[in-house]
Design goal:
The structure holds two protein chains of two kinds. By secondary structure, chain A is mostly helical. Chain A has nine helices and no strands. In chain A, 35% of the residues are buried. In chain B, the strands form two sheets. Chain B has a six-stranded mixed sheet, with helices on both faces. In chain B, helix 4 (110-123) packs across helix 5 and helix 5 (139-151) runs parallel beside helix 6. The two termini of chain B are 33 Å apart. Chain B has a domain at 88-155. Chain B is built from nine helices and ten strands. The longest helix of chain B is centred in the last third of the chain and has 16 residues, at 169-184. By secondary structure, chain B is of the alpha/beta class. Classes of the chains: A mainly alpha, B alpha/beta. The A-B interface holds A 120-121, 123-131, 134, 138-139, 142-143, 146, 219-220 and B 48, 50, 73-74, 76-77, 79-81, 83, 85, 87, 89-91, 100-101, 104-106, 133-135, 146, 149-150, 153.
Chain lengths: 220, 240
């Protein structure tokens, strides 16, 4: 039917390099998520509480991040800034692109989370003599965190998978590394099949970890 | 003592309270009755400063609630409040719900706060539910939890905003019983309520609100058997 002979040996030989690259993928995704959560929370608060230019800027960020292809966002930090003479390393390009994208999506999750906590919770807290900050940090934020917990998990998975775009700006994360070996050995199918399995395992581990953590964190 | 002088409150163009004058003495139980929208709940929110006022004053133990320099968070410790939608904190156990404010507002140690919380929860009959989350409690239990939470701040006054209106009928009794117990213990209480039986039996005075005006105030016998105002008469005829 087809005459293609599978050759797995080259893949197996470079497996240690692929595993290393997988850790790089995980690293950049985790960093982008941490930055994305902090910035996304900030964007959500700015959009809810401020007016004028700050609100416009925050809204634009969210709009651009959500309504343009993630690849273009990455290209902006790579070739876009490059055209103006600002040359970033592939690592920084991917980190910046992912962070930009994740912050935009997470901002909307946070906004929904804040809106889901009724104002009466704040009133009840203030009626007990809590300051506005105490009411926010002790009563509102913990409830928001639970609401956005699973969307954050989804975004984490998305960040891992999206980091594969890094190979298009020359970043040797898991996909970039795979592409590098595949084009040297012409065992393209074999390499990408194995890499797909590695991605799958990473994502499964993230989901498992998330579920275990949720069971500990959320008893109510 | 709570003194309310010529209090006016607007929501935009809507004139919700039209010049309320009222004194509530220590140890007194005042019930506030009237139709929905008559301004009675708003009065409570103005007393503990959750709503700003446009004219007039509310003075609690000599402190003007709405004056600029007033430490409102400190003043609110004297004014416990219980809401119609009980507003338990869903992410905290019953014990944590009650212990939180004593710890972070009053600066009690964790152990002290838990002890206060345990005592207050036992007081309202929730001694068995210390570690339960609100989602596992009935509406009546959650409302008693809210009462315990307010009491844990050792307030001088308790404000009840239709504390039983959102409850299933069979759960109203346990909350009223708890309120009755507090009244017997000598707590000063302002109860906005639709429970005419409670207003009649437990209050020292009953105030009737109509369209932002306090139409009538007096001992329950007078309000319920010989109301002076036509509006009061009509209202009472309708609720019976």
């Amino acid at each position: 039917m087809f005459d293609y002979n599978f050759h797995w040996r080259p893949v197996m030989k470079s497996l240690p390099d692929l595993i290393d690259a997988a850790f790089l993928t995980l690293q950049v995704a985790v960093l982008a998520m941490i930055l994305g959560i902090v910035i996304g929370l900030g964007l959500a608060l700015v959009r809810m509480h401020l007016r004028g230019l700050p609100r416009w800027l925050a809204s634009s960020w969210v709009e651009l991040a959500r309504n343009t292809p993630a690849l273009f966002q990455l290209f902006f930090f790579g070739f876009g800034l490059g055209a103006f003479g600002l040359h970033l390393s592939p690592y920084i390009i991917v980190l910046a692109g992912l962070t930009f994208n994740c912050a935009g999506y997470l901002a909307e999750n946070f906004r929904g989370g804040f809106q889901a906590v009724p104002d009466t919770q704040i009133r009840a807290a203030r009626s007990l003599g809590m300051t506005a900050w105490q009411a926010y940090s002790r009563i509102v934020i913990p409830q928001v965190f639970r609401i956005v917990y699973h969307p954050i998990t989804n975004q984490m998975v998305w960040a891992v998978l999206m980091s594969s775009l890094g190979m298009l700006v020359g970043f040797r994360e898991l996909s970039g590394e795979t592409q590098f070996f595949a084009s040297r050995t012409f065992r393209i199918f074999e390499y990408f099949a194995v890499t797909a399995v590695i991605y799958y395992v990473i994502v499964k581990l993230i989901l498992l970890g998330s579920r275990l953590l949720a069971a500990r964190l959320f008893r109510y | 003592m709570i003194e309310i002088r010529d209090l006016h409150k607007y929501f935009g163009a809507l004139h919700v309270l039209k010049g309320i004058n009222l004194n509530v003495q220590k140890g007194e139980v005042l019930s506030v009755i009237g139709a929905s929208g008559s301004g009675k709940s708003t009065l409570l929110y103005c007393i503990n400063g959750l709503e700003p006022v446009q004219q007039g004053r509310v003075v609690v133990d000599g402190i003007d609630v709405h004056a600029k320099g007033t430490d409102i968070n400190r003043l609110r410790q004297r004014l416990g409040m219980v809401f119609q939608q009980w507003n338990s904190f869903p992410h905290l156990t019953a014990l944590e719900n009650v212990a939180l404010a004593p710890r972070i507002v009053k600066g009690k140690t964790r152990a002290e706060a838990r002890e206060i919380a345990r005592r207050q929860l036992e007081h309202v009959g929730l001694g068995e539910k210390l570690d339960a989350y609100p989602s596992a409690l009935s509406g009546g239990q959650q409302q008693r939890l809210a009462i315990a939470r307010a009491l844990a701040m050792e307030p001088e006054y308790m404000l009840f905003d239709e504390a039983t209106s959102a409850l299933d009928p069979e759960l109203v009794g346990e909350v009223l019983e708890t309120m009755r117990m507090l009244a017997e213990e000598g707590m000063t209480m302002i109860c906005v309520t639709h429970e005419m039986g409670f207003a009649r039996d437990v209050s020292d005075r009953v105030a009737f609100f109509h369209q932002g005006v306090m139409e009538e105030i007096g001992p329950p016998e007078q309000i319920f058997t010989a109301p002076q105002s036509e509006h009061t008469r009509k209202f009472l005829a309708n609720v019976r």
